[in-house]
Design a protein that fits this description.
By secondary structure, the protein is α/β, with parallel strands linked by helices. 38% of the residues lie in helices and 15% in strands. It has 21 helices and 17 strands. A hairpin with a 2-residue loop joins strand 15 and strand 16. The structure holds flavin-adenine dinucleotide. It is found in: Cytoplasm; Endosome; Nucleus.
Length: 603
């Protein structure tokens, strides 16, 4: 074909890709585009430039200009900052994909696995001003013409995923749908044909991604991450039941006139909620309404009114049982949410027909926000047979958002940038403890971030945290304060058998001590105190110890060992007392330090 028709064809294929409106459709259009234009999507470092060269009509120029501007940020060192670093991202939600984009811009090889093959969440995310600016910079308007038109500051989850998938693919990210992460596979001791680095066990098992070896793994798999090693903090508040509802938006003039209800504004409007209760019996703590692809409502309802209106059938103490499907009258729930939506919009929406959800049902759902979770730490490092693996969490896996306040995507993106910054440091060869200490310092800011207290200079935003957090102290956690659980060298230098043997000899003859293992034998703290007493009797008055005082004995040992021998505690006395037995991995780690410090001493 002639060069002119080739150009026209390329442009049309690209347009099909840009306009694709489903996840599968997008991946299909992309694969046709690559095939027809003879582009190799696996050649991640050259893909973007090859695509740009192949599709060069004026229509796409504006998109290339935007993406070039982003890619030329100094922090990426011309796509070479992380050359050779391989990353696996678990989950193709907004935060996994946003992280993928940053990592590929840094020059990493990035593979995203997503267990589903449809983007079906109608629910709508609130965007902070910086996220709008950020997404515009990635060409959001090109992919979704209605993106944040006028004063609108929200987007449906599926539109956001769709847009981010497209940007990711353009920039050379490899995306696999219908692929589920099961667990990490440690590198084998000897190099074999299948390779020698960290890999993942996935479903389906024969999938090529199971051969992918990586240096970084990112958990972006939503509320309950499947990655091991992260302790979760629970924020238990008062009972909070949220209801989301989506109604069909026919985009009529009448619908266009109805005013939205923004998240924060309404919480304080007592009069509204009193009237709602008087007129309808519906008792809410707040309500949000966004006009998007659907008419989207999210509200927090009081339990008593749900019981009174027959939505919840029986009253139970445990929320799980309370909201279990067989205790919810679906018809009553549909009416409840519709009535609240109708009242909230002053009966101005002409027809409130439910949109259809993923399961082909009217799109209404009830969620329990009584317990919210956050991971205690944002990252850790594993080491096995000389292979280090950086493990990080982003998005809901890191910090669960309370939907009615709409913090999920905004804080999720901040964490995506912070994580990319950490990967850059990792690739530059910073020491593991420095990396973890910096990441933890930055993570401490995240739960407090608001649109008001982050930098307003969006133009300057990059993955460098200093461009975003005005009061950043990136070294508030010092490397020596990093908890040893976060730098998990799976192969302790001492063989556990030898360690146990040594501990037994050291503690032999002490009253109340009988070391038979590296976990439960240490719970009451006496063995630890004995270990110290054997080295320096003057540090601990062993005979005064009380076997029952688990917290006290352990804390004493931890404090003395830290002060006198510089051995960092791995937990606290209180936690030792709270658990039925200490974590074996932690104990091995901790006792190895004693072994290293004292094995050559005469005692
Ligand atoms: P998610 O968007 O949850 O994405 C995680 C992805 O990982 C999913 O696509 C999932 O399929 C995939 N995944 C999970 N496990 C695996 C695995 N083992 N292997 C491979 N892939 C895996 N926020 C609001 O502000 N308002 C709302 O109304 C609202 N409604 C929501 C409704 C639902 C049903 C859910 C799940 C979330 C909702 N959220 C809502 C939260 C919001 O979607 C997230 O805050 C936002 O999408 C950013 O999350 P994320 O990317 O971290 O995770």
């Amino acid at each position: 074909s002639s060069p002119v028709s080739r150009t026209a064809q390329a442009s049309q294929l690209f347009e099909n890709f840009v306009q694709a409106s489903t996840c599968k459709g997008t991946l299909q259009a992309f694969s046709i585009l690559c095939r027809q234009l003879e582009l190799d999507p696996l050649d991640h470092s050259n893909f973007y430039n090859s695509l740009k060269a192949a599709v060069s009509t004026w229509k796409v120029k504006a998109l290339w200009t935007k993406l070039d501007k982003r890619a030329q940020q100094k922090v990426y060192s011309q796509n070479k900052a992380c050359q050779g670093t391989r990353c696996l991202i678990i989950g193709g939600g907004p935060c996994g994909l946003r992280t993928a984009i940053e990592l590929t811009l840094l020059g990493c090889k990035v593979v995203v696995i997503e267990k589903r093959d449809t983007f079906s969440r109608n629910n709508v995310l609130h965007l902070w001003p910086y996220t709008i600016h950020d997404l515009r910079g990635l060409g959001a308007k090109k992919f979704y013409g209605k993106f944040c038109a006028g004063s609108i500051d929200h987007i449906s989850i599926r539109q956001l995923q769709l847009m981010l998938v497209k940007v990711s693919l353009i920039l050379g990210v490899e995306i696999h749908v219908n692929v589920e992460f099961i667990k990490l596979l440690e590198p084998p001791e000897e190099q074999t044909d299948v390779g020698h680095g960290w890999r993942a066990e996935i479903r389906p098992s024969g999938h090529p991604v199971s051969d992918f070896e990586f240096d970084v793994v990112i958990g972006a798999d939503g509320r309950r991450s499947t990655l091991d090693g992260f302790r979760r903090k629970e924020f238990r508040g008062k009972l909070a039941i949220a209801i989301t509802a989506n109604f069909v938006n026919r985009n009529t003039t009448a619908e266009a006139k109805v005013e939205e209800i923004s998240g924060v504004a309404f919480i304080f409007n007592q009069k509204f909620f009193l009237e709602l209760k008087e007129d309808t019996g519906i008792d809410l703590e707040n309500i949000v309404y966004y006009k998007d692809n659907t008419h989207y409502f999210v509200m927090t309802a009081k339990k008593q009114s749900l019981l009174d209106k027959g939505v919840i059938i029986n009253d139970y103490m445990e929320t799980e049982r309370l909201l279990s499907p067989d205790n919810v009258n679906q018809e009553a729930l549909l009416s409840y949410a519709r009535e609240a939506a109708d009242f909230g919009t002053n009966y101005q929406l002409p027809s409130l027909d439910y949109a259809i959800n993923h399961y082909g049902q009217p799109d209404v759902a009830m969620f329990d926000f009584t317990c919210m979770y956050a991971s205690e730490n944002a990252a850790l490092i594993r080491e096995k047979h000389g292979h280090q693996l950086l493990v990080a969490l982003v998005g809901d896996s890191l910090l669960e958002p309370f939907w009615p306040m709409g913090t999920g995507c905004a804080r999720g993106f901040l964490a995506a940038f912070d994580t990319a910054w950490m990967v850059k440091g990792w690739a530059k060869g910073k020491s593991p403890l420095e990396i973890l200490a910096e990441r933890e310092s930055i993570y401490r800011l995240l739960p407090q971030t608001t649109p008001e207290n982050i930098s307003k200079n969006f133009e300057q935003y990059s993955i460098d945290p200093a461009t975003r957090y005005p009061n950043l102290n990136a070294s508030c956690v010092r490397p020596h304060q990093v908890s040893p659980v976060l730098f998990l060298s799976v192969e302790s230098e001492v063989h556990p058998g030898r360690l146990l043997n040594w501990c037994q000899r050291q503690t032999h003859g002490y009253q109340g001590v009988d070391v038979t293992n590296l976990a439960s034998s240490w719970r009451n703290g006496l063995a630890l105190c004995a270990l110290i007493h054997r080295q320096k009797p003057e540090l601990i008055d062993y005979d005064s110890l009380n076997e029952e005082d688990v917290a006290g004995n352990n804390q004493l040992a931890f404090d003395v060992a830290e002060r006198e021998f510089g051995i960092q505690p791995v937990t606290t006395g209180k936690e030792m007392a709270a658990d039925s037995q200490p974590d074996k991995l932690l104990m091995v780690l901790y006792l190895s330090k004693f072994y290293e410090a004292f094995r050559n001493s005469p005692a």
